[in-house]
Fold this sequence. Notes:
The chain is an alpha/beta fold. It is built from 18 helices and 15 strands.
Amino acid sequence: MIPRLLSPYAIRDAGYYPIVTITGPRQSGKTTLAKAAFPNHEYLSLEDTETRSFARDDPKGFLTRHPGPVIFDEAQRVPDLFSGLQTAVDKDASPGRFILTGSQNFLLLKEVSQSLAGRSGILHLLPFSRAELDRRPQSEPGDPLKLFANRKPGPDVPSLPDLWETIRTGFYPRIHDRGIPPEIWLADYVQTYIERDVRSLVNIGDLDTFERFLGLVAGRVGQLLNYSSLASDAGVSVDTARRWISVLKTSFIVFALSPHHRNFNKRLIKSPKLYFFDTGLACYLLGLRSRVQLETHPLRGALFENFVIAEVAKAYFHHRRQPPLYFWRDRIGHEVDLLIEEGGALYPMEMKSGATVGGDMLDGLLWWCRLSGRSERKGKEREEGPEEREGMGKAREEKGGEITGTRAALVYGGDDAYERRGVAVRPWFSI
């Protein structure tokens, strides 16, 4: 078993709370983690028809028979159980009595917030991170650049795929544990899990339309979320598109990156950007079945960006923290792919899929840092009124500029780590 970064946090929380809830997408390894972290707990799956019937028909009797310590897998399948759990832990609040897992975030957390508020620790487990596959430690988020430690896998770690094969394969555990080709496993995953979860949350009459919708969502990875355009291309109403996107978020398939608003420039984009938690799934939905197809695909840059941002999000979730992640873009076209907000400070990051770093790759970071007052220009006085500049051409005229007093990073598709004009340049595998 590949150790999970979230495991010690689950064990720690079991010493604080009578209930620990582990949620995340299907097949992300929740059951495996729960069993490994709590080997002395009884295990019961509420997917089992007989077990589920008992729990649903007689929750009190069910909990009397299984008073804990016990793992209830897919707990959202029996919503009536949560009231019984509340009564049980109010009578006996011994820590770590019940471990709940579930793959439907909305249903599970709705029940937890309604019945078990203050009684349960809540953790989110996503598919493997690159650090977990490398079997290397990962710094707890705080100083974001510590996430990019430039550590290569140790000599005892099996050889891992290169950049494009990594992005195409994705990170679902069964692909790596069993060596299943991603195009085979992901096809079954879409049919077996996504459609089942979606059907249990919203009524979808035409699955072919929904499959087309999934492909269109994948085609918009890293782009501003435009519900009207998406609905028009899919042949559904805007309300339906909103509902289906909400379901994909609930099922931990996609997540939205919100724009960061700072008053130093009022002309800001306000729509979120859409990403997949797993790039392998995005590549499958785009019909990319080989690394050669991916390397030459028009969305290769967007998928690389998705890969890095999803890895940062995993780093936060797997250290039991909500990711404070944003992007920044103004209406002229200046953009920073990722802003990490820590302790009131903002850490800008850019992602470029190229194996070499060209000077213009730093323009977005340099522009943002000048705009926010965090850069200086060698041999020149800083200009005022940056909001009046009309385009990246002006930014490129200021290439003497250098970032100071900030922690900016560029993650790229190459192998070397170094500093350039005040920016930490880091290779793709370092996170």
